[in-house]
Amino acid sequence: MSFAVYMLASGRHGTLYIGVTNNLVRGVHEHKTKRQPGFTARYNVDRLVWYESYDQVVEAIQREKSLKTWRRDWKIRLIEEVNPDWSDLTASLAL
Fold first, then answer.
1. Where are the beta strands (DSSP E) in 1-95?
2. Which of 1, 10, 27, 64 is 20 to 30 A away from residue 49, measured at CA?
3. Counting runs of H as helices and runs of E as strands, what totals does the chain give?
4. 95: pLDDT strictly greater than 90
5. What's the pLDDT tens digit per position in 61-93?
6. pLDDT at 38 over 80
7. High-pLDDT (> 70) share of the chain, %
8. CA atoms within 13 A on the CB side of 73
9. Which 3 state secondary structure label does DSSP give 75?
10. Closest by CA position to 44, among listed 87, 15, 1, 80
């Protein structure tokens, strides 16, 4: 089983959300359909802009916690290194 740490955004340089999941496709779908009330539903944060995969849940959780302590400009730089246009990467997951 693999695990993913991911960042969602409301738009380019918009509100950011960092999460971890064992099923990235399902997790992003739940955010997009606003299945759970909360932060991402309230602020329309549903564009997958960055993610990394891990084999061990402990590593994924450590990375998530680390990213949550980062300054906003560092997170933006991380996103733009792999996704300069802030495209929604969801379609690439279904391949």
1. 3-9, 16-21, 47-54
2. 1
3. 5, 3
4. no
5. 999 999 999 999 999 999 999 999 999 999 988
6. yes
7. 98
8. 0
9. helix
10. 15
pLDDT of 31 over the 90 cut: yes
| Amino acid type, 41 | A
CATH architecture of 3-89: 3-Layer(aba) Sandwich (3.40)
pLDDT of 27 higher than 60: yes
Q: What b/e readout covers 46-83, taking b as 16+ CB neighbours within 10 angstroms?
A: bbbbbbbebeeeeebeebbeebeeeeeeebbebbeeeb
What distances in angstroms separate CA 93 from CA 15, 30, 45, 64, 90, one per listed residue? 22, 14, 18, 20, 5
Closest alpha carbon to 6 in 16, 20, 25: 20
